[in-house]
Amino acid sequence: MLDQIRGLHHVTALTADAVRNNAFFTKALGLRRVKKTVNFDAPDVYHLYYGDETGTPGTVMTYFPFPGIRAGRPGAGEVGTTAFAIPAGTRDAWAARLAGLGISGLAREESFGEKRLHVQGPDGDSLALVEVDADARAPWTGVVGADLAIRGFHSVAMRLRDTGATAELLTFMGYEKLAEERGVARFALPGGAGAHIVDLEAVPDANRAVEGGGSVHHVAFAVENRARQLEVRKALTETGHHVTPVIDRDYFWAIYFRTPGGVLFEIATNEPGFTRDEPVTHLGEALKLPRQHEHLRPALEQQLAPLA
User: Residue 189 falls within a domain, yes or no?
Assistant: First the structure.
């Protein structure tokens, strides 16, 4: 069993409109845009990162905005809901805030004894705000006050036709099963301090999900450094998983593998972080390009939509 995993690192999803996506996460949810860069494989497409003040692992939601992408079709084999932690007692205040901003798809829920607010993102993204008592993580307060602001991730929930093999994988990754409720099994890292929960929902008769706007592309788990990442890669490979070589993503190093249930997992390092190429005070302001795409800057600055 692995002991290197430290919880969620980031979640990456797809959107059809960079401007609308940016406004939702920075203005409505009040996260900070900590990096404005481009997709390594499609440099004419933004890669936008939203999180706390410095983009601490476990707080960062990222998006690839593909203009005009079709809407995703929910189903089996995907991350169904991405949940963020909010302070206890703030669900109603969040509901009022988001309703006042015209955000749709708001629904009060309760699961595993936690009060939740379901929120529909601009591409139909399935998001949730979950009340958490005594979450010690410091929030970004550029838009939303500290008494209300998002602390970081709470969890991801995966919809799978068969949860058995993914449950075994999570157990191998160091997670423990905590409870089961209405067909959803909850796994958590022992001693986790936020961003440490994964829920598995069994949907045996569901159609396969079709990726598109609002879909999660992959979910990343955090390790401290490259040495721990190589240990994880070796262990996963030895157990039969097909894991990519280590890839330099500028702000972390990454490896990827497809899980038995169809969800794409990434293992990402906490180093070097988002301050490697711009100061904390100006994170997410300038367009930052991977070295191999720097020669495209003049064209990209003309082509990519301006973001506030």
Answer: yes
pLDDT tens digits for range 231-281: 999 999 999 999 999 999 999 999 999 999 999 999 999 999 999 999 999
The model carries a pTM of 0.97
Residue 190 lies in a domain: yes
pLDDT at 192 (0 to 100): 83
Tell me what the mean pLDDT of segment 190-210 comes to: 95
Category of 302 on φ-ψ map: left (φ > 0), alpha (ψ -120 to 50) or beta: alpha
Contacts of 199 (CB under 8 A, 6+ apart): 155, 156, 157, 158, 184, 185, 186, 187
Domain count, the chain: 1
Tokens of 200: 């598995």
CATH number where 192 lies: 3.10.180.10
Q: Is 1 domain-assigned?
A: no
Three-state SS at 174: coil
